[in-house]
Design brief:
Structural class: mainly beta
Shape: globular
Low-confidence stretches: 1-33
Number of domains: 1
Strand order of the largest sheet: 8-7-6-5-4-3-2-1-14-13-12-11-10-9
CATH architecture: Clam
Radius of gyration: 18 Å
Largest sheet: 14 strands, antiparallel
Order of helices and strands: HEEEEEEEEHEEEEEE
Helix content: under 10%
CATH class: Mainly Beta
Number of strands: 14
Length: 247
């Protein structure tokens, strides 16, 4: 389990409930000269493939807000034949030199099949708990959210780590665990160009029929450049980096 600690934060009042609290956190405040980020802000664009066909795009954007606070968004829009899937995730979190601490997480999915939506808040005060809007409140035991492990993983790979474990709340509001294992180095030819990468395998419980591999590029701040997933041996999807820039 990855443990997270940070200074006490003044609690946000809730005159209109959790949604107002979340909206207030999305307002970006320019950083002062003394308020320097410890993670480099970036925007990455990906082309999505299925069975080798271009089926859409995805984007990851990390922005520094202020006072150790960051915003991380993931969006994707894919379609094939009469099937479509559009997703959006937004994390607000705090980061220092050696910790990443989630504050809020939002997920929305639309397209073929039922639409889904989830809002989660990680509260440090007065008690450490995970508040799931419209659901249960769980004791917070160091879990992160559904996407922050990718940001921490980049930092850990840069430090030379080869095995990791992450406890997190997934986009269904459930407690889950990912094991991470470095499987080697690989040169990739991507829409972005050729990159030397570190390949990792995401380890789930033994009952899972899914198999996921991810590639991270040291030359691009160890960020994600490819993600490929299989289920029962068949490819579910493959996203490859097409553009990258610092913000």
């Amino acid at each position: 389990m990855i443990k997270f600690f940070r200074r006490k934060v003044t609690p946000t009042t809730k005159p209109a409930g959790f949604l107002l609290s979340l909206l207030l956190m999305l307002v970006s405040v320019p950083a002062s000269a003394e308020d320097k980020p410890v993670i480099t802000s970036f925007e990455a664009q990906y082309t999505a493939y299925k069975w080798g066909d271009d089926v859409g795009e995805a984007k990851i954007k990390l922005e520094y807000l202020s006072d150790e606070q960051y915003s991380l968004t993931y969006s994707s829009d894919v379609s094939k034949f009469f099937l479509s899937d559009e997703r959006f995730e937004h994390s607000v979190f705090f980061a220092s030199e050696d910790t990443i601490l989630p504050f809020s997480y939002y997920y929305k999915r639309t397209g073929t099949g039922p639409d889904k939506q989830l809002s989660v808040k990680f509260a440090s005060f007065p008690d450490k708990q995970i508040e799931i809007e419209g659901g249960e409140t769980l004791p917070w035991q160091g879990e992160t959210d559904n996407q922050l492990y990718r940001i921490d993983l980049a930092r850990q790979l840069a430090a030379g780590k080869t095995t990791l474990s992450y406890d997190f709340i997934n986009y269904r509001g459930e407690r889950k665990n990912y094991g991470i294992e470095v499987t080697g180095e690989e040169k990739l030819s991507l829409p972005y160009g050729e990159l030397d990468t570190i390949k990792v395998k995401i380890l789930r419980d033994n009952n899972s029929s899914r198999e996921t591999f991810a590639w991270f590029a040291p030359a691009l701040d160890y960020n994600l450049v490819r993600l490929q997933q299989f289920k029962d041996g068949d490819e579910q999807g493959d996203i490859k980096l097409s553009a990258y820039r610092h913000l």
